[in-house]
Predict the structure.
Amino acid sequence: MKYKSQKIAYWFFALSMLLFSLQLVYGFIMGFDRIGIQGLHDIIPFNVARAVHTNLLVVWLLTGFMGAAYYIIPEEAQRELISPKLAIVQLVSLAVVGVIAIVGFHFNHWEGRKFLEIPRELDFLVVVNVLLFLGLILGTLFTGKRKTTTALILSMGLLFAALLYLPGMIWFDSQVMDSFFRWWVVHLWVEGVWELIMGGILSFLLIKLTGVDREVIEKWLYVIVGLTFLSGILGTGHHYYYIGVNKIWLIVGGIFSALEPLAFLAMALFAINMYRKGEKSHPNKVALFWTIGSSIVSFIGAGILGFAHTLPQANLYTHGTLVTASHGHYAFWGAYAMIVLAMISYAMPNLTGRKRYLMKTGSAAFWLSNIGILGMTVAFGVAGVAQVYMERKMKMEFMTVQNEISIHFVVLLLCATMFTTGIIMFIYDFIKYGRPTDEALVDQKTKTPAFSSKEEVFELN
């Protein structure tokens, strides 16, 4: 840790892990509901559990991104955060808005718009919160000693993510118009500006973990940004056709959705290439696992599965089925969840000064969660294909089909248990690191080398 104000990141990471845990709890409630175990159904109906599960996904990832920004921007700008106190205010207000929203969902206080269920009055508080966050980040960056490409791409992603929230707040009487602009928010977030955030964090981690020159890594970032804008924005069209807009969007969405894997392929090649070029051994292997793993899994989940799912000929049948859930779970996990966990794994030793690099729990958490999520993806996919065949080819009733495919959710729950065990181990490791200390600041500057040979790594532990 080079700057004292980077400690703010720890509290965002802690809130992020708390929200992630809650998301898993609601995921299990839905899973048990699917196989007929409905003890909580009167208190938490399936639609409420689903709304909480999907909205918590968005909030815990955004909280993780904010934590990453509070760690990265001071280091890249080479100055302290302009106001750590306001950053704490932003964290507390974010948590308060989140709690009110989740409690409100249980009393049917929501807008009923998938991924954007937060009531309108809370939307305005979210806007104020994000404006404060952006003011702190951009203020720090543009008053700092340097403005790196990594910091600028990360900030650009965060700024555009905030701007694209606004179209989702426009009120329309028409369902088509409402869905049109809701997809601006949802799709352009996950397949547009969030990729810029991922690219910025990935670039920072590779610079720190591989020792490859910053200039080489940041040149790749331009390629990723170009591919993201080319494919992500117009690829949104594959949603438009199904909400009743002109047929041209089927062609536009199909073509540009097919190009979307290129951005993720570039990220995967980028990470693997930089890892191979790195001549120095960094002791934090767990952070390296999560970083490289994020780029590879995002290419498979978002790129390959997304490509297979969004081709018009396939999407005609698979749109809105469990095939979407299969693609969505693996894509979100690889592209965004893993990069947040990579950032936490990298930052925690530096924030606390505790070099727990060789602890087995970190590696076990990585493998258990990744094998578990792969099993969940396959279970969702098989259930989805069966659903498509029975519901859309054989024209069977929706609920009849749901009963027929319920056995796949038993497999899904077993895999989810493995996945959750891995996440519990990750969070246990996070807690064991303890809170950040000022001693870590002194230790980072004077004693701990940035890179070490394998022998030095062994001695450090």
Remarks:
- Confidence is low (pLDDT under 50) at residues 449-461.
- The chain has 17 helices and no strands.
- The radius of gyration is 22 Å.
- The first helix runs from residue 8 to 34.
